Amino acid sequence: MRLPFTVVHRDSEAKESPASNLHNATVHSPGWASAPFPLFPQEVTLAFTGAVCIDTLRVLAHEHFVPSKLHVSVGRVPKYSTPDHTSAKFKYLGFVRFANNGEWKLREQQTIELKGVSCSFLKLSVEKPHSHGKNLCGQVGIVDVAVEGEVDLDQSTKLLKVGQQGLDFQMLTHGIDLDEDFVHSEAQVEGMGADAVRMVRRVAMLKQDAEWGEDFDEAQRLSGIEGEIAMCGRGLKDAEAQKQDAVSNEDYAAAKALKAKTDELKARLRELMDSVQGGGTGDDSASACDARSRGAGHGHVSRGGAA
Fold first, then answer.
1. At what angle do helices 194-212 and 216-248 cross, to 10 degrees?
2. For residue range 27-69, what is the model confidence (pLDDT) as tens digits?
3. CA angle, residues 27, 191, 116, in degrees to nearest 5
4. Is the peptide bond before 4 cis (omega within 30 degrees of 0)?
């Protein structure tokens, strides 16, 4: 699963590209960029919700602010130490290099296999950038950080117990909301937004309640609504991606049409949830999402490749 994280430290950031952009990054996100004329290396530290085991780390570099090298370290908090990244003990794992893409508008992705290393923090140390005609201020940038792995339940439980004894372990004060973490992972897999996944889950729970109560007419109604919400959710995500591509290409007529499509899909999702909460049929526009999302196929643009 893709592990959620919070950026708890960065040496600097550009006003229009804060490190918080990495929290829910997409191929259309600007990501993080350092402040102009920074000192190197620039460090960015990520905190996970408890302890995790990382299998794979993928880092997508900015197309203009291309780092020459990126160093990777993982950190754990010693028992009874101050529970934040400043007191964590970091272990250096190694580095990867990014190629100089010259004047090409390409993003390079580096994939690093970490084979289940256990940690609570991940530190990225970014070296000076390659020369680029559109990087006049010597900045470095990362568009996306994807961390694949699993929650280390045993270690997370130990940390939680320590927190109950008086330590305010930083990630755990936000709460280990595994359900919410799984929502975002499911959204990635199913190709829809997190809000649509939450709607599907809500309807699925009500459908299960109807099954247990042997109200099979209601279960059938909710099953149809569940399927249409999923269809709308996928269509909405694809249309949003295509709209962003159209704006990037300055095709504003297409962007306007796609905005109208996304507005219709959002309205239909609201109608469906109202029918769930109000007990309506939800069948009057049963094919609405299919019609609105048809033609909104996957419009994602790959701007980088694995090195």
1. 170
2. 677 899 999 999 999 999 998 877 889 999 999 999 889 999 9
3. 75
4. no
Q: Looking at residue 36, what DSSP letter applies?
A: S
Q: Which amino acid is present at 214? A: E
Q: Are 219 and 227 a contacting pair, CB within 8 Å?
A: no
Report d(CA 64, CA 103) in Å as an integer: 8
Structure tokens at 26: 């997409």
The pTM of this model reads 0.55
Determine the residue type at 99: A
Per the CB < 8 A criterion, the answer to whether 225 and 274 are in contact is no
Please tell me the distance from the alpha carbon of residue 169 to that of residue 87, in angstroms, as a whole number: 11
The amino acid present at 130, given as its one-letter code, is: H
Paired tokens of 278: 């109000």
Tokens, residue 118: 């256990």
Positions of E strands within the chain = 5-10, 32-33, 42-61, 69-76, 89-97, 107-126, 141-151, 304-306
